[in-house]
Each structure stands twice: as C-alpha cells, then as structure tokens.
Amino acid sequence: MKIKYNKLKNIITHLLYVGILFLFGAISQAQTLPYEITNKSIYPDNEVFVAIVGITDGHVWVDAVTGQVNRMDPSNNTVSGPIIDGNQGPGGNGKYANCFRRLSDIPNKTINIPKIAGCRIMISFKSQLYLYFFGHSGDPSGYAAPNLANPTDPNQGIKFELVELTFNDIGLWCNTSRVDSYQYPIGLEIWGDNFYKKVGELKAHEDIISQWQATAPNEFKSLLNTEEGSIHFPTKVETFPKNFMDGYINAIWSKYTNQELAFTSDAGTWRGSVQGGNQFVFTRDSDGQIGRIPGKPTTIQAMEGSGVMASGEQWDKVVQSQMVAAITRHALDLNVPSGVLQDFGDTSKYYQTWPYNWYSKFFHQTDISFESQTYTFAYDDVYNQSATIHTPNPQNIKITLGGLEGGSNPNPTGHVTLYLDCPFAGNSAALYEGSYTMAQLNALGIPNDQVSSLRVESGYKATLYWDDNFGGDSLEKTSDDDCLTNDGNWNDKMTSIIVSKTGSSGPSQLIEAENYTSMSGVEPEDCSEGGQNVGYIDTGDWMAYANINFPTSGNYLIEYRVASEVGGGTLSADLNAGTTVLGQVNIPNTGGWQNWTTRSHTVNINAGTYAFGLFAASGGWNINWIKITSASSLKSAKTILANNTDINEKVKQISKAKLYPNPFKNSLQFNFEEKNAKITVFNTLGQTMLSSKMIESGKPVDLSSLNKGLYLIRIEKNGVTETVRVIKK
C-alpha cells in the first residue's frame, strides 16, 4: 500500500476549490495588454479624458500616455477642482489627482496596462474627473471616487463612463457597468486565443434617452436627469420611493416563516425558511452548507445588495446574492407551493411580475444592449446576465465610446487558403480558425481528391489529417512564404483540416495531471511514461484545473491515464466545484502504480470556460494526464455533417429530461419528449446500485430499496448521456 508523507489532510469541502482558484496569480507588471479606445462620441478627442486606477502591490495609477505605473500619493493632488457649497475635498484645499490624460495625447489611442486588480478605466467628457489620492498603502490609502449621491461632490455635472477589469495569471475579467448610472453608450470587445466577445449599447445616446422618456413607469421617471442626459440607479436618486419593493419583500418573509423556499441556482440547490428575528436560513442539498440572511432587507438593501444582503461568511453571501437577483428580477414566485423547487435561472420569468427593478429591465432589452447583457445591479452576474467578459488568454481589448460598431468583425479573412493546384489558381477556399471535415470542404468547392496546395497566413497553422478522428498521421504547414504542394500523401486520403494559431493545440486538450491550479491531499511523483504523474490519492482528495475551455456545446470524450496497484478506485469529474457533475469512472487494478491504462467516458457540456475538477470518490490510484476531445472531432468525415444535426437534437431532448420529486422517498418520475430512456444509479463511491434499467416517460420508478443518501443517476437516450444528482430521504 502506498504511504503518503507530509500530506495536508484538511477536511475542505470539494465545493471550495473554485474560490481558491481566484486567489492565485500574484500581480506582475511584466505583461501588459493593449486597450484601444475608439471615439464615436460627439466629443472630439481633446475633450475626452482617461485615467486608470487599480491595485498591484498597493494602490497605483497608470499614466495613459506613457504606460508608466505610479504609486498613489497625496503629492499627486495638484489639480484645482470645483468647490461646491464650500466642499474643498478630502485635502481641505480643493486639490485633486493629476491622473487624467486627453485621448488626443495618447499614442495610437492605445493604453498598455499591466496585470492589475480592481482596476477602473475612467473616461470623462469635456472635463476630467476629480479623484483624490490618499496613498499607496497603509491607512488611509486608495482614492476617493465620484459620489454623485453627494450634492457637493466636485464631479457633479461631469459626464463619464468606466470599464472595470482584473487581469492576473488566471486571465482577464472585464466589464462595462450600469450599477450606479448610465451616462453615455459604450462598447467593449475582447479578443483572446480562439476567443472573441463583445458587450455594450447598440443605440445612440439620444435614442436611449428618448426611449426611456417614452416608456419609463412613473416610479422610475425621476431617474433621468434631463439636464445632464444621464439615468441613475434607483437608490441613487432621492425622489425614488424608498418602499418600492417593501410589499414583495414582506410577502416573501411572511410566506416562508411557515413554509420552505427551495430554489436552484448557479451555486447549487438551496432550501430555507425564516426563523426567529427575521433570519432566513438556507441549507444546500449537495453538502449541507448553511447560508443566512441575518434580517429582512429594506428596498434599498435588496436592490443594491447592501446591508443584510452583503454580510457574513462565504455561503451567507452566496444565498444573499441569489436572493438579491431573484428580488430585483421578481424571479421568486410566491404562488409556488412550499418545498417545490423554483428555477431562478429561468430568464423567461425575469421582469414579468410587478414590482421589479425596471431600470434593470430597460438596459437588458435586446434593442438597447447587445444580447441583452449588461451590468445593472451588484449581482447581475448571477446566471450570467452581466456584461462581464472572461478569457484566460486575452490578446487585445477595444473600447468604443458611443456604443458598439455594427461592422465589427472578429474574424480576419484568409487565415488558410486551400487550392486545387499551384500556383494559386482554380477553385480555392479561405478558412477561418476551426475544424473542417472533408464534407465541409466539399461544400466550399474543394473536392477531396483534388486538393493539391495550401497557403497559410503568418501567425496561423494548418494541419491536414488523413485519419477519421484527427488522431492519425498529419501534415502541418505554418509558413506563409510559399504554397505547400501535394507530394502524393494528400488527395483522397485527407479527411480533415484544423486551422489554428501557431502554437495552439488541435481539437484535443491534453492536461498534465500535475498542472493543477489547486488541490487537496495529492502529491506529484516521477512517472514511468516521462515527466510526472499525480499519486497518493485517497478518498476525498481532489484536483482543480482553472479555465478549461469547451469551445462548442455537445458531447466530449474525456480520457484519463490511470494506474493502480490495489483494488482500483473511482474518479468523479465535474465543472465549477461540483455545480455540474460529469459522472464517474471506475479505475481497475492495473497491476502496479506505474502500469498505465486509459479509461474514458463521454459527457455533454455546454460551451464555456470552466474550472474542471477531479474528485476521488474512492482512492487508491494514480493519474498521469487528462485528454478532452470534442466528440464531433471523432466522427467520420463522411457522416459528421448529418450527425451534428442529429446529435444536437438529441442533446436538446435529453436536456429537457425532468425528474421529480427531488429529494424523493420511494420513487422518482422521469418525463421525456419521447417514450423510453435507460437509467443507471450509482452511489457516491461509484458503485452501481441499479443497472441499466429501461424506463418509460411519465411512469414512477421504484427506488425504495435504496438507503437514504446522495445518488447519481445516469440517463441514456439516443446515444446521449446526462448525469444528475438526487437525494433519497
């Protein structure tokens, strides 16, 4: 038996590791990102002012002209600002930080910003803003920002916008914000490694103001300051009724004094009730974690996410954020019976029943904000409704003053060009980044038996395969100097081509097991296959790998290179700290700790970037690597186009599978669009408790023989699988 030395055995919940991921990545100024500012506003470049403030080793500001990072210091406060009703600012002398620069003075209108936390790019029009610097560290430190709720603030009447960001070793998080106010339309676009996304307003400023005036309910009309042409968050305006949400909040607290509120969230399933002193106490189904709201919130607290809705420990704040979002969107349905699960992620129910925050609804309209994503209250990121963009490998950022440009094209043309002959004549096809089967190339006019040459633009590569699954022999070209001519190995043998940036991987991602971002209880060791593997894995140990990208929705084959000298064990895979369970894989006795075998399963995953986790449901095994491959990449070139449509439809069908009640006592009922499916029930150790049972839609399934506890049910239908958690009580 393997002995584990110097191993930290803290009993840390498996669900904690996502929080740990974001603690990594010490700030380094060695790497910078370019932030280009495009000015489509009515203000000339010399009337647009830019400042950058944030935190590296302490509070700093970045000179937008030179890119120089400077410590915040009171000596920077040299600019005279307006004095309103005798308010001479924190320094008592009406002086403010000399940190703003005119857009016209910024070379190429591009700012190079290093890795930085809590950063704001502040952009004002016609006048700089007046910030006050307290210092780099110690007490006091940081800066005094604009406070428009203060009528004597020197920034009153100055139109401004901002972009918020954090850039560290894990990647970039960046967003526009409407949490305090809307003052001018702004667009944000981010490019990364095989990544592009944009957010922002789609209409001109005058059109947005006109639409507000024509549609705002009476309670919200006063949020518009017609003189400034700005719209402020409700709680920032004195005339907004401070009891606006009280009736809804009182009804929630009253109902759940004697009943149970159960809801799903992007942080698990929670059940709770109001206990003595108006304290709302929730318990999470998956692990029994407790989250509390210490008292009944006021309208302001519920809309802002402040006071009792922003207090306590980690899980308190989780349930508080969910409830702030549910109240703001009126997603909590008081007509649902006690204990019946509510889905707070059902966007079709947002902003449908009065009262709700109409300010938020307005800016989430698809004709106002691109794909309805924007940041209108503190927890608008609950269920990904915010304007936050994240990519682990950012390359450049574009900020557009005046809103998004309709002509933005994230895909430059002509990365790879295939030709029928050389030099460059006859039929050709320009291919963007991605995977192409022969059937897709045929549709572009490139017959598979006639491709004779290709050319690649600088910075990209083309890999040709003559194997059905992208895993066989290949031929790669990365130079754009000349065309690569057929040497007799292509023609009818070629089945597919991958277009990617130089240095990037193909359709499969190989994760070395020892390259975890965080872990509990494991240790790396030398591996017989070269490099290192992870060993000393006991029951309850885990490993997390940040920012694993699944570029498309659909099935993925996940392979694990494992070994065991004992009776084997069980590996459980998940996303985002157990929020999505991908299923379990049984690991056999391979006859030695370095006798390797590959085990795999196929799972369905929605496109996105996740924290990928491995959890030892039972220990006694080693792991060398994990390989993730899109199932579509494994399809034969002759059938992939037909199968893609078929598989997508099957995925839609399986995703509509409903089971209830959960928790259950003796039986579960499954509802599907079609008649039959097959289920397999596993316990938390990965042991099969019910083998491959065929079930009928709408008919109860007897599970009374199971003991009380947590189980995993794998649902198989039309070749697609989905795994869900259930609890027997």
Structure description:
With 729 residues, this protein is mainly β. Helix content is 11%, strand content 41%. The chain folds into 5 domains: 32-239 and 382-401, Sandwich (Thaumatin), CATH 2.60.110; 246-354; 419-500, Sandwich (Gamma-B Crystallin, domain 1), CATH 2.60.20; 508-634, Galactose-binding domain-like (Jelly Rolls, Sandwich); 640-728, Immunoglobulin-like. Strand 47 (676-683) and strand 48 form a beta hairpin. The two termini are 36 Å apart.
What portion of residues is helical? 10-25%
Count every beta strand, where a strand is a DSSP E run of 2 or more residues: 51
Average of pLDDT: 81
Q: Output the CATH class name of the largest domain.
A: Mainly Beta
Low-confidence stretches: 1-30, 407-413, 421-426, 467-474, 634-656
Using only C-alpha atoms, the radius of gyration works out to 28 Å
CATH superfamily of the largest domain: Thaumatin
The gross shape turns out to be globular
Give the percentage of residues in beta strands. 35-45%
- CATH topology (level 3) name of the largest domain: Thaumatin
Name of the CATH architecture of the largest domain: Sandwich
Number of domains: 5
Query: What profile does the largest beta sheet have?
Result: 8 strands, antiparallel
Put the structure in a nutshell:
The protein is mainly β. Helix content is 11%, strand content 41%.
Q: How does the SSE layout of this entry go?
A:
Elements: H1 17-21, E1 32-39, E2 48-55, E3 59-62, E4 69-71, E5 77-80, E6 95-97, E7 101-102, E8 110-114, E9 116-125, E10 132-135, E11 142-144, E12 160-168, E13 171-176, E14 181-182, E15 186-192, E16 195-200, H2 205-215, H3 218-221, E17 224-225, E18 230-232, H4 246-255, E19 261-265, E20 268-275, E21 279-284, E22 290-293, H5 299-304, H6 314-329, E23 341-343, H7 358-364, E24 389-391, E25 394-401, E26 416-421, E27 425-431, E28 434-437, H8 438-443, E29 453-456, E30 460-465, E31 474-477, E32 484-485, E33 496-501, E34 508-512, E35 518-520, E36 523-526, E37 532-537, E38 542-550, E39 554-564, E40 569-575, E41 580-587, E42 592-605, E43 608-618, E44 621-630, H9 640-655, E45 658-660, E46 667-671, E47 676-683, E48 688-696, E49 700-702, E50 709-717, E51 720-728
Parallel strand pairs: 1-25, 19-23
Antiparallel strand pairs: 1-8, 2-3, 2-7, 2-9, 3-4, 5-6, 9-12, 10-11, 12-13, 13-24, 14-18, 15-16, 15-25, 17-18, 19-20, 20-21, 21-22, 26-27, 26-29, 28-33, 29-32, 30-31, 30-33, 34-44, 35-38, 36-37, 37-44, 38-43, 39-42, 39-44, 40-41, 40-43, 45-46, 46-49, 47-48, 47-50, 50-51
